[in-house]
Transforming growth factor-beta-induced protein ig-h3-like isoform X2 (Limulus polyphemus), 371 residues
Amino acid sequence: MSKRPLCHLSTLGLVVGLIFFVTTGCCLITFPNYNRLTLKLNAVPDARGLSSNWLPYFNSGGKQDYSIFYDNKSGATNPRRNLPTGFGKRTNLVELAKKLNLTVLVDLLEKTKLDNTLDHEGPFTLFAPTNEAFANRPSYCDNVPLKDLLKYHVTRKVHLSKDLKNNELLWTLLSYRELRMNIYKNGKVLTASGRHIIKPDNMASNGALHILKDVICSVYIGSAVLEINRCPAYSILSKAVNVSGLYSILDDFGPFTVFAPTDEAFNKLPPETLNFLLKNATALRDVLLYHVVPEVWYIAGLEDGQLLKTSQGTKLKVTESAQGVKVNDAMIGLPDAAVSNGVVHSINSVLLPPSYSQEQVVFNKIRPKKI
């Protein structure tokens, strides 16, 4: 019997083995983290698939009222795909954050294990708060699960400042949440969900890093009217919106700014004024539309003396002082609550259009224009 076929098989095996060795070697040279990436492939969540099983790092000191539904889909992206020229050859986003002395952010990424994604996956854009930003975060920030909070600071793909457009929405790693980008003051102020970007376009091997002055804490669930309805401080406003028939408008795509009076603000009105408004949908609608501006204005974009045209047709005047920011005579208390269709600012007084007075409202001498 001829032994030639065995020789052929041996030769074929040698060739296959050589190809496998060369191919694997090339992969390891091209992607130094190839083995790590392969092992972690099924554990990397995509923009829609998140796990809610984690413990918050911050001690909230109170109950959390934050609730989101999650799915469990997973996926991974090519760590070197579609990166603009000029990006760092070796420094990944986590290493870059360390070099920029963003030590609190790095610590939190490590505690939530997100560093295992941001150190080699991508491409991503990381919106990175400073150490001071975390130290000065508002108290309600601690009610948001930490991993959700951090995922909301990361978007898929690379987004450089020169390419961003006003009101552009960027999908984040948090399920169904987008960051809203705004450009104010002739391009001098760029914000991500209202937080000022103070140092943009720091480049890493797997994306870009923009440094933020503040932490993005308002991780919304839905539209302006949904957020108002789920907040106990706005129970009267919520009722007024439904009575006036404005629910569908404030639940629409927008975008717009809502100056939202708290219950304390409504209770400053004489009882007869509030009762009249709640029983007269046309007048109430006119008053509420005076609280809505059909543009997105975060605090960072407002200027002293600025006039904002409302959906009611007349204007609000912005005043800045050491005490804070006012619209007309109402002080903005809790600012910059991002929602899916714009932003909500809490105010401490109800705004009445210029032609109104409380006496006119009570005695029905007003004739609000029809909307």
Q: What stands out?
A: DSSP finds 14 helices and 15 strands in the chain. Residues 261 and 350 are 6 Å apart (CA to CA). The radius of gyration is 27 Å. The first strand starts at residue 124 and ends at 129.
